[in-house]
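Board notes (copied after class):
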Amino acid sequence: MGEVLRHAVVRRVSSRPVVAVLAVTGIVAGVLVGTSGLETVSGCGTASDYYPSQTAEDWVTYADHVVVASPVREAETGRSDYTKGSVRYDDDRTVTFRTDHLLWSSRHPAHRMGDSFAMVAPGWRVYRSGTRVKRTATDAPRLELGHTYLLALRWTDGRWTVLGEGASVPFDDHTGDQGEWCGRVLSKEDVSRGERFSRKDDHSLERALLGQNEAAVTRELARAERKAG
């Protein structure tokens, strides 16, 4: 089991700069350690995309809109109570965002983007002891108040969702890969250090946007649209 875990961690670390920097600082030590490890910030979850989300081509193919947005309020929702064990309940958060900038829209979006919108985000795990632990669903931001994000959104089943973990990028101070990620705050320098451990063939849009602003996003999306014809 130790060998399997070691290879699993190396595989995840090599694929993503932000995972790499967290691993270097010891944050990803809980990865793959049981269900709670996959649902809390110590493990930070497993990557899971509803739609392809890694490249600019993915974004212009599957998203309805790409926005820079900031959470302005949240409410705890979707509570699941447990009668046994140390966990009292898990819940989600419904997060309301302010649309700061609409950077791109599909020619035929499934739903109009307004001045604000809401999404369901990971909430909390509350233990019978009273301890509250942040929950995360994937290798992605938790989407917390006080931060800004670059999001590729798709209207699915009557609500907004991001395409996947590659379509939710920390964007504090309008700077790619700077801000809240997996419940912790990283600077672009933190993420840059993680690049030393990432895959050399990582051509994700998130990596291309490291330290970049909105203009870089629109250029990449316009280039992807031209390429797609």
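Comment from the instructor: Residues 214-228 form the longest helix (15 residues). The chain is about 25% helix and 30% strand.
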